[in-house]
């Protein structure tokens, strides 16, 4: 009779960052099978807006004080990149995150391994950041063919778009983590927060054109801060201190959203 022997485990618990990147790899393995279906949201949607507003409508707008002396195409190009990033981020942070809890339940499966809820959240934020950077780069390249850029600050505009998207996306991830019966919750976010924010945050015209009692709403909009920072590095229409203030607002909002999402991810995934 043979004696059963206990073998030493050769496995090891991965580090915090390695565990998150394993999840990012999983996102990529899935995404490369359906990336064609996301071409519109990944880069074509803001390009179509640029063609319609920058080339079409913009051909009727003369350069002046409202546009900082630049053509309307040059004025609106960085803001459309940022607006597209915000829309993509909110979309990727709502139903896909809820699906990880409720429908596909891959978050539940993954956290049954040594991967923690914090790593799951971190991987989601990193994956959305990669998507935003890719989308922004595609847009920037196509917009360059239209003659939309006046400086070499385009890479910074792409990064600002990514930061703005994360500042918009992390609070939505926290909302998704507290959602059990979605109903019209996300639809209300899109209709009454995202769309008005796109229209009235200085994307298409300066907020100085808004009635004075409504301007304070734009001041609390992450999209306005992203638009101003993007125009600062591409057009030079905003001073350095103001630009740092806009970036600080986005960083703080992204951090608050991450803290809330971190709390609710653990609350929902740790039994």
TrEMBL record:
The chain crosses the membrane at residues 125-146, 152-176, 188-208, 241-261. The keyword Metal-binding does not apply. It holds the Pfam family ABC2_membrane. One of its GO terms (cellular component) is ATP-binding cassette (ABC) transporter complex. Belongs to the ABC-2 integral membrane protein family. It is found in: Cell membrane; Membrane. InterPro entries: ABC2_TM, ABC2_TM_bact-type, ABC_2_transport, Nod_factor_ABC_transporter. It comes from Amycolatopsis decaplanina DSM 44594. Signal peptide: none annotated. This is Transport permease protein. It comes from the Bacteria. The keyword Cell membrane applies. One of its GO terms (molecular function) is ABC-type transporter activity. It is a multi-pass membrane protein. Residues 37-268 form the ABC transmembrane type-2 domain. Keywords: Antibiotic resistance, Cell membrane, Membrane, Transmembrane, Transmembrane helix, Transport. GO terms for biological process: response to antibiotic.
